[in-house]
Amino acid sequence: MSLERLLEQDFISVTEAAAIASAQTMGLGDRKHADRVAVEAMRTTLAEIDIAGRVVIGEGERDQAPMLFVGEEVGRLAGDENADRAVDIAVDPLEGTNLCANGAPGAVAVLAASERGGLLHAPDTYMEKIVVGPTARGAVHLDAPVAENLRNIARSFKRDVTDLTVVVLERERHQQLIHDIREAGARIRLITDGDLGAGIAAAVRGTGVHAVMGTGGAPEGVITAAAMRCLGGEIQARLVALANENETDAEQRERLGSLGFTDLDRIYRTEDLAKGEQIVFSSTGVTDGELLRGVRFFGGGARTSTLFMSMSRRTIRFVDTIHREDPTTPVLFK
Ligand code: VTB
Description:
binds 7-O-phosphono-alpha-L-galacto-hept-2-ulopyranose, alpha+beta, D-Maltodextrin-Binding Protein, domain 2
């Protein structure tokens, strides 16, 4: 039986647990706390399932993160390299920590997994990305001028550029990009956080999102790639050494170099980021979003909405789960 099939229910419950835990902190204004409880819930649930899991994208390097750090072995079969359930795992227990802390839409709990070696161990730095869905796959190039990419996306959708919407993170660094998109005539949706969820929306028709452009986190780029493998979409990306609250540009460049990422011109394609032959992806809504509803508490339980995708099985499931503390709690149809 394929790994994907074996682990389906298990992985759904992992992101559900993380989503419920963090949703309980929604609006408390404490993003670190929201993230911590999501990490704890995800790790506790992972420990109960029959996998020899290895975290390849996690909460940070071992010295910075107590749990779900890169390299951590998780699952009941942890450390058993002969296990036929050896999987590499990329987690983002709470994507959009600020969104959750502010009760804003778009926060999700996410996990992607593959056979060993199927997901790039990307460093925790920035990544320049362009993401499109299956309709515009093959029509863009990271180095092409913005207007050219938009023209080609519009052609794929058989419409005008003015009928496209591009999602961009609202950041100072995106001034030029925003200017170029406006000048080309496309519409823009600025978001405060969460380019992973936006990338998934771009790969689903009917969401009104046609592309995501700009620079966000590299680890999320790999998880986006895993989702694109399942959805038939495309991501092109490049690592960027860019200062953040902890490091200068030069420090990032040095760290990238020490991890073996010396060619900062290299464009990573979807398959470079997530090359696995068996890929699964699970994402549960924490707050309401484009595709998923957030966690709803009803007194005596919670209801979650999850997107679970399996690449080789070619299934995309929208899973609506009622978690009851008390088995006598009535179930509502909707
Ligand atoms: C933001 C955030 C994303 O990376 O892009 C962040 O919204 C990095 O950018 O969800 P800043 O340091 O400027 O906030 C993500 O966390 C993932 O790509």
